[in-house]
Amino acid sequence: MTTILDNLSVFQKSELLDALGRRGGILAFAQKYGLNADSLRGALSRAGGAEALQIEVSEEVVPPSPQAINTLRQTSNALPRAANIVQPPAHFKLQKFAYASDFHAPYHSTLWVERLYKVGYHLEIPTLVIAGDLFDFDNVSRHGSDIQSTDLNKTLEIGGQVVRYLHQVFETIVVLPGNHDRRLMKKLDRDLSWANVLRMAVGNMDGIVSVEQDYLCFDDQDGRTQWIGGHPSFFSSRPTVGLQQVALLRQAGILGSHNHIQGMSKVNDKFWVIDPGCMCDRTITPYIQRGAGLSRFQDWSNGFLVIDDNLPQLFADGLTRWSDFE
After folding, report:
1. How far is CA 119 from CA 166, 246, 320, in A?
2. In whole angstroms, how far apart are CA 230 and each of 43, 92, 268, 324?
3. Sheet holding 215-219, edge to edge
4. Residue ranges of the domains in the chain?
5. pTM
6. Whose C-alpha in 21, 61, 155, 253 is 20 to 30 A from the C-alpha of 195?
7. Model confidence pLDDT, tens digit, residues 261-285
8. Contacts for 161 with CB less than 8 Å, ≥ 6 apart
């Protein structure tokens, strides 16, 4: 025999069960759904009270119908796809390469650019990686107008000459952007790629590879990443500080730049962490000279790095006998 309780939906039974715990709850429930409150109380009493409202959950899993599956597929296909404009890290398989950074053209050191050229020539190094800040772009910096700066045309012209000069000895030159390089793109609301900035300076891009990311990976012949190099955003006055944690995290050797300081250390006796130094001349950099050398930049060190068969060699005054490369 069907009772008033049998005609209630699952949601109504749940609501009635909740109403039993409130004074006047049954009356309010009956009035809401147009039921006789006395008949509802009687049905509850005959059925055993609140236990009659407990909802039994079947453990049997009922597979969805083919129609339901088709509906889900159609709605899933209609879901807008997320925009993915993030480029994966660039990977290079290089057995032997030179690594230099922070030229800050037109304030580069002609002495150190020449030394890099001669080392590349004598050691027959096929590839040079410029790890950021090829240009200075002080003309679009936050420095005050009281500081003399080089206009954009001259900066691009001289930076391009530096690259073409080195390209005479290095068959391939890979160039990453640094924070100074990005100044121009930022000034133009980033409506300019790093590749096009480099092309404006260099002209013929044969053998010149631009990398838009801040970092790149150097892999062995089996595809395992041995080194990660790039232009970190943080500044430290101590060599390799910060890079050591990155080495442990990525389980690879780390080649830094940006800090203009020099040093090597080894993490867990396994991963080399290296700051190669800079390729600029602070004595002709206007915003450095304004401080008469009394600034955090007084510890800048010139230098560059060569990696051959996974073995790093740092080139710097006090470490290198430059007469061997004359």
Report:
1. 11, 29, 11
2. 77, 13, 22, 29
3. 90-93, 215-219, 225-230, 253-255, 271-276, 262-267
4. 1-55, 91-325
5. 0.76
6. 253
7. 999 999 999 999 999 999 999 889 8
8. none
